[in-house]
Design goal:
Elements: H1 3-6, E1 9-10, H2 11-17, H3 23-31, E2 35-37, E3 40-41, E4 48-49, E5 55-57, E6 60-61, E7 70-75, H4 92-95, E8 104-105, E9 114-120, H5 123-130, E10 138-145, H6 150-155, E11 160-162, E12 165-167, E13 171-178, E14 181-188, H7 195-202, E15 206-215, E16 218-219, E17 228-230, H8 233-239, H9 241-244
Length: 248
């Protein structure tokens, strides 16, 4: 491999690094003809570009990749975690504080789920943090209605299969009961769509409040609802050292 080839990277990765979308979305944009390189519209994401190639999205030059930044956001319930919602519902991006750079979310939280959501201006970092191989756990405080069977909670450590979908090991413990409600602490590493709600339903429990309190080593702490706190660069590079290794 010559030096020039070594400097090339996949087009979707380059777009994600510019912070305008995730790599997955970039691939979709390419397939729908929104991306061009040196004036030629791409038809497939199986394409690499070098430093001198001119990339445009919707006819506009791709922004230069900015320094990677990471933010902790206390998502309120009732907001959708998407840039545009086809049903016209309010999104998190409609409610972010003024002065925020263009960011993408690290994964998603359901509309009615509250708590910690990571945001970054680096779509490639978002992808890295979402990968199951990264092995980061997500911890939630969960309020459920119904009678809690602690033996069934303990059994979740072995995983559970619901309607043909297998969920890997989940740690769940009972914290306290309040009348017909109970508070649980639930920790998982997969984060499949509506995973906690579906697993609790399988245990005859109905989730009526769901709050994510941590994602990997990052904690919600006392960040006010709707507020954003930026992670200091030194802390970010220490906590996500695998991502930054060899990039600088």
């Amino acid at each position: 491999m010559n030096t020039e080839d070594h400097k090339k990277e996949r087009i979707a990765k380059k777009i994600a690094r510019a912070g305008i979308c995730s790599r997955r979305d970039a691939e979709k944009w390419i397939m729908t003809g929104r991306v061009a390189v040196n004036g030629k519209t791409l038809e497939t994401p199986a394409f690499t570009v070098g430093e001198d190639d001119v990339v445009t999205v919707d006819g506009k030059p791709l922004p230069q990749a900015a320094k990677t930044r990471l933010f902790l956001y206390h998502k309120p319930a009732g907001l959708v975690t998407t840039n545009r919602d086809e049903k016209g519902r309010t999104t998190i991006f409609d409610k972010l504080p003024p002065g925020m750079p263009r960011v993408v979310s690290v994964g998603r939280l359901d509309m009615n789920t509250e708590g910690l959501l990571l945001l970054t201006n680096d779509g490639e970092l978002a992808r890295f943090l979402e990968l199951p191989a990264t092995g980061w756990s997500r911890k939630y405080r969960v309020r459920v209605q119904g009678k809690v069977d602690e033996k069934k909670l303990e059994a979740l450590k072995k995983g559970i299969t619901i309607e043909g979908i297998h969920y890997k090991s989940i740690e769940a413990k009972l914290d306290k009961t309040q009348g017909t409600n109970a508070w649980l602490t639930v920790t998982l590493t997969e984060g499949k769509n509506r995973e906690i709600r579906r697993v609790m339903e399988a245990l005859d429990l109905r989730v009526n409040r769901l709050i994510r309190v941590s994602y990997g080593s990052f904690m919600l702490g006392k960040i006010p609802e709707g507020a954003v706190e930026e992670v200091k660069e030194a802390v970010m590079k220490t906590q996500i050292s695998k991502y930054f290794k060899g990039r600088e």
